[in-house]
Design brief:
Elements lengths: L4 H29 L16 H8 L1 H33 L4 H10 L1 H4 L2 H15 L5 H25 L3 H9 L4 H30 L2 H6 L7 H11 L4 H27 L1
Helix pairs in contact: 1-12, 2-12, 3-4, 3-7, 3-9, 7-9, 8-9, 9-12
C-alpha cells in the first residue's frame, strides 16, 4: 500500500525542480548586471551600478525603450477594448460561428511565433508597414488579444448575467447596461488582461526582429543586435529591469483579481 504522502512529495519535488529551472538563470543574470567589469563574468569580481548608468545615459537605449513603451501602451489601448468586446460576444453566444471565432483569436498562443512573424513580414512588405509604428502596434495587438479575451471570459463566467438583464428590462440599452452593471464587476479581469497584453508587447522579440527597424527599433531588437555584435553587460542590467517590471505587473494583476474575488 502506498504511503498517502508520497504522491504529494513527488509533486512537490517536481514543482521545486521546475521553479529551480526558472529561477537559476535569474540568479546568474541579476548579479552579473551589477558587475564592475567590462565583460560578463560570474560570479562578478566587483559590484557597481556602472551598467545601469550606461543604460539610462545612452540615448540609443533610451530611444529604443521609448519606442517599446509607446508600442506597449498603444497595444493595451487597442487590445483591451477589442478583447473585452470579443469576450463579451463569445460568452453571450452559443453559435458555432462564435466558437470558431474564439479559436481563431486564440491562434497566436498556439501557432509558433516564428511562423506568425514570417507571415506578418510578407504581408507588411506588400502594404508598406515594415519599420513603422502602426505595423508594430497591430502585430502586438494580435498577440495581446488572446490574453485579454482569456482573462475577461474567465471574469464573465463568474458574473451573473441576470443582473445585466434586469438593467436592460428597466430601460437601459445593451451598451449602457454593460458599462454600468457588467464592466464594474469584471474590471479586475479587464485590468489583468491589459497588464498581460502590456507585458507581451514589451517583451516581444521575434516579430520585432522581422518588422522593426530605423527610428522604430524596439528595445528587445536592440538587445538582440547588441548581443550579436558583442557581449555587453548592459544587456544584463536591461534584462534585470524587464524581469523586475514584469514581476511587479503580474503581482498587480493577481492582487486586483484577489480583491475582486
Amino acid at each position: 500500500m502506498k504511503h498517502p504522502l508520497l504522491p504529494r512529495l513527488a509533486f512537490g519535488l517536481f514543482v521545486g525542480l521546475v521553479l529551480a529551472y526558472l529561477i537559476v538563470p535569474l540568479a546568474i543574470i541579476v548579479p552579473m548586471s551589477f558587475s564592475g567589469t567590462r565583460f560578463l563574468t560570474f560570479p562578478p569580481p566587483s559590484f557597481s551600478l556602472r551598467w545601469y548608468e550606461e543604460y539610462f545615459g545612452n540615448p540609443a537605449w533610451m530611444q529604443a525603450t521609448k519606442v517599446s513603451l509607446t508600442i506597449a501602451a498603444l497595444t493595451v489601448a487597442l487590445a483591451t477594448p477589442l478583447g473585452v468586446a470579443a469576450a463579451y460576444a463569445i460568452s453571450n453566444s452559443q453559435s458555432r460561428l462564435m466558437r470558431s471565432l474564439h479559436m481563431v483569436l486564440m491562434l497566436p498562443l498556439i501557432v509558433p511565433i516564428i511562423i506568425i512573424a514570417i507571415g506578418i513580414f510578407f504581408v507588411y512588405a506588400k502594404v508598406g508597414l515594415i519599420a513603422t509604428l502602426p505595423g508594430l502596434v497591430l502585430a502586438n495587438v494580435m498577440l495581446g488579444l488572446p490574453y485579454v479575451i482569456t482573462s475577461v471570459v474567465a471574469g464573465l463566467q463568474s458574473f451573473d448575467p441576470a443582473q445585466e438583464m434586469v438593467a436592460r428590462s428597466l430601460g437601459m440599452n445593451r451598451l449602457r447596461a454593460f458599462l454600468t452593471v457588467t464592466l464594474p464587476q469584471i474590471k479586475a479581469s479587464v485590468f489583468a488582461g491589459g497588464i498581460f497584453a502590456f507585458i507581451s508587447a514589451i517583451d516581444e522579440t521575434i516579430i520585432s526582429l522581422f518588422v522593426s527597424g530605423g527610428q522604430y527599433q524596439t528595445l528587445t531588437r536592440r538587445m538582440f543586435t547588441a548581443l550579436r555584435d558583442e557581449i555587453d553587460p548592459t544587456i544584463a542590467s536591461i534584462s534585470t529591469l524587464l524581469t523586475a517590471a514584469s514581476f511587479v505587473l503580474v503581482l498587480l494583476a493577481m492582487s486586483g483579481q484577489k480583491k475582486a474575488a
